[in-house]
Request: fold
Amino acid sequence: MTWGKLAALCGAILAATPAAAEWLEASSRHFVLYSDTSEKMIRRQSEALERLDWGLRRFAKVQDEPEIASRKVTVFLIDDSQVRSLCGCQNVGGFYQTRVSGSIAFSGKASSFGDNGIGQMVLFHEYAHHFMFASYDLAFPAWYTEGFAEFASTMRIKDDSAQIGVPAQHRARGLFQGQRFRVPEMFDPTLRSRLGSAERQDAFYGRGWLLTHYLTFKPERYREFQQYLRLLNSGTPSVAAAEQSFGDLGALSIEVDRYLAGSRMPAMTMMYDGNVLPAARVRRLSAGEADMIDLRMRSIRGVTKTEAAKLYARAAPIAAKYADDALVQGWLAEMAFDAEQYDAAVAAAEQAIARDARSVQAHMYRGAALLRQLKQGNVKDAAQWDRARRSIIAANRSDPDDAEPLWWFWLSFQMQEREPTPSAIKGLYRAQELTPQDWGVRMAAAVARIEAKEWAEAKRLLRPVAYHPHAPEDNPALAMLTAIEAGKSGSEIRAVGEVKTEATGEQP
Reply:
């Protein structure tokens, strides 16, 4: 073969080779996705997640939120090894975090999204938690919180419909070979904290799915479950509420076991029927964003003080090459803030603001860095604190529905050791409404309600945390709720809760 023919052949091969994957962002109504994949795949993944949200709303009869633009879930679809590295754990297909700055999820990339692979099931499970806490300001028993998430995790996304209630085959071993928790045990609020081994955890998740599935497709039992929730959220202890609602819990346990032994389980098919799918806007990340994205993922995942210093040292020289990229400078400001490099955080934020005067992140971190400097310097001059707050106010004006500036405005008064103004309290309540999944903000709002002697509102805020399946054994929300029910004073209630506003990770 001549050199000319060889060159022509090589050219033909190269032309036929698919283009290398590149970092893309797909922004739709409820989600922002990042992945180094093809445009076709990221659109499919965006579509699957929007169909999941649609299916959950259709199933639960929950209306869409009008102010969702500032509260989208950010999802990073990455290699499984990256998921494990960011999680710091093994044998995970993905994980989810929620905070006042926004909910995020990390999931393994699916080769064919919609095939109910493990990565998709984990992501669907975690989004179901997000959906539940955003949609219902209620306490749920731990088994239902996890059971509903498992119920949603197997949703099948088809071209014309979504199907919910598909059997959780991945829980089969725990269901058939694991411990068979009886229904009375499932309603014991201490069971979740006593599970221990991975095998018992798996069995608990499986039984939670089974009980959720059974109650969902047995109308008379589902009505009894709704009565149970009403009693639970009015202060009746869980087991007593279950006995009053379901009657003989042993009989219910036998029914559920028979249901599992049956040959077939129902599922619900929901036809799209012309419902318009929220379109995804796909864009290629800028050169600066692409160079910074790995560091951005680690930053947004959360870092220790030592990790933050190392991350900033790596990010600063990269960001220096992209001084005109407002988003990159905003990311750098956050990394500098985490590393306690406050002058650098202010400089990067101002660099970003010069190019994008409406950057919420830049205004936010400029203000946060200035506030932190005042706190560390033990500055008492009220005028300096007010000047620092102007950046937080600017962030709020750029996006009134972003919860983080509202939270930081209230937090600034805690840092100054000054009583928050009525507008700061109002902002705290609004931040909690915008991010109901953030327990730190919720607890701070509950304390404010206690101080105002608004007992019903305080109990409403505390109950979801008090019954949360991943709450610590010394659950402060449960202790505070118990103290309110016992008629304790505000100071006594706060003392048993030992509430710290640092719970969100945004320490003063």
About this structure: The chain has four domains: 21-121+154-162, 167-266, 286-399, 420-508.
